[in-house]
Amino acid sequence: MLIRSIIGLAVITQIAGHASAHVVFNVDEAEPGTFHTAQLRVMHGCEGQPTDHVRIVMPDGVTRVTPRVVPGWDISVEMRTLDEPILLHGFEVKQVVGALIWSGGSFPDFAYEQFEFRAMLPDDSGRRLDFVVNQGCGDLRLDWDDIAAPDADPWALEEPAPYITLTSKNGD
């Protein structure tokens, strides 16, 4: 019985360690073609070092991106030029937000922080939007940029990019 308990505890510890090694969205599903408020949780620092830089890259089709202020952090925006202009409310748009960057703040390795933004999602039911995240911790860096094949489990990857799946408009 003791050996079963020890093995069970080891399995739980391994699963918990694996789960805490990710950056994730609080809600990983959203309705296509709508505004969505995304809350990204960065679950820890890098090898014991505090996190002092977070960069979230917007996937193609995500527009009208607005970051939320995190007290103690600075926000900057990287723009991306589109191959083909798009129309937003009757105006031709040639550039969209390519990435959001929070810097100048810090949180310790044992804590987590949440970074939030609001965006218009593409009208593409069933699509998985992968958001590459670069996490800086002084001289160390974690790149959450592993993107799974369409039918593969993203959490089986070593450093999976967090994602939001676009559900169908009628909830199916």
TrEMBL record:
Coiled coil: none
Pfam families: DUF1775
Transmembrane regions listed in the UniProt entry: none
InterPro entries given in the database record: YcnI-copper_dom, YcnI-like_sf
All residue ranges annotated as the YncI copper-binding domain in the record: 22-166
Protein name: Nuclear export factor GLE1
Organism field: Algimonas ampicilliniresistens
